[in-house]
Design goal:
The protein is an all-alpha fold. Helices cover 81% and strands 0% of the residues.
């Protein structure tokens, strides 16, 4: 083998390696987009469940209108949110408002015993678990992607082809503390 052939093989090997890096970055980016779509689906399921829950609570004379209004406003903010940051803020507001709604149910035994309310509450609890799982997966794949675009030699390919870092979908510190204090959804 002469020097020219060896150099050509080395260049082909390096080019092939960079193609592999590029394809891995594309796959991670597609995984992030797919996992974000999963979060969106779960949020929509929750938004669709809220009107039935609010209608059930409205059936009781003693409900607090301000609590229901906050739930409805938080739901609408979530529906209108487009960016990850907006959805994160709306999710935090809705979680807090729902926590207050379920705390309110504790004060009304008739509402706590309502089978429709209990069924909706159980569905919402399941959806909340699904959202948490989707959020964890999204954040994990985002972490992997962000680490990869900052790692050597992947960062050269990432910069060349504009692979930018992605945001995590998290509770902010105040909301995380509030969520820990939130009453359990299961009554």
């Amino acid at each position: 083998m002469n020097f020219g052939t060896t150099l050509l093989l080395i260049l082909i090997g390096i080019a092939g390696y960079f193609v592999i890096i590029y394809n891995r970055l594309v796959a991670l980016r597609a995984g992030i987009d797919s996992s974000w779509s999963d979060i969106d689906v779960q949020l929509k399921r929750r938004f669709d469940l809220i009107p039935a829950l609010v209608d059930t609570v409205k059936g009781y004379k003693e409900y607090e209108a301000s609590t229901l209004e906050k739930v409805i406003q938080a739901r609408q903010q979530g529906i209108n949110a487009y960016t990850i940051k907006e959805k994160e803020e709306a999710d935090n507001l809705l979680s807090g408002a729902l926590g207050k709604l379920f705390a309110l149910a504790e004060a009304y035994p008739d509402l706590k015993a309502n089978t429709t309310f209990l069924k909706l509450q159980d569905e919402l609890s399941t959806i909340e678990d699904d959202i948490q799982n989707a959020r964890r997966y999204y954040n994990a794949i985002t972490r992997d992607y962000n680490a990869k675009i900052e790692s050597f030699p992947d960062l050269f390919v990432a910069r060349k082809f504009d692979f930018g870092s992605r945001e995590y979908f998290e509770l902010d510190a105040d909301e995380a503390a509030a969520a820990k204090k939130m009453p359990k959804i299961e009554l």
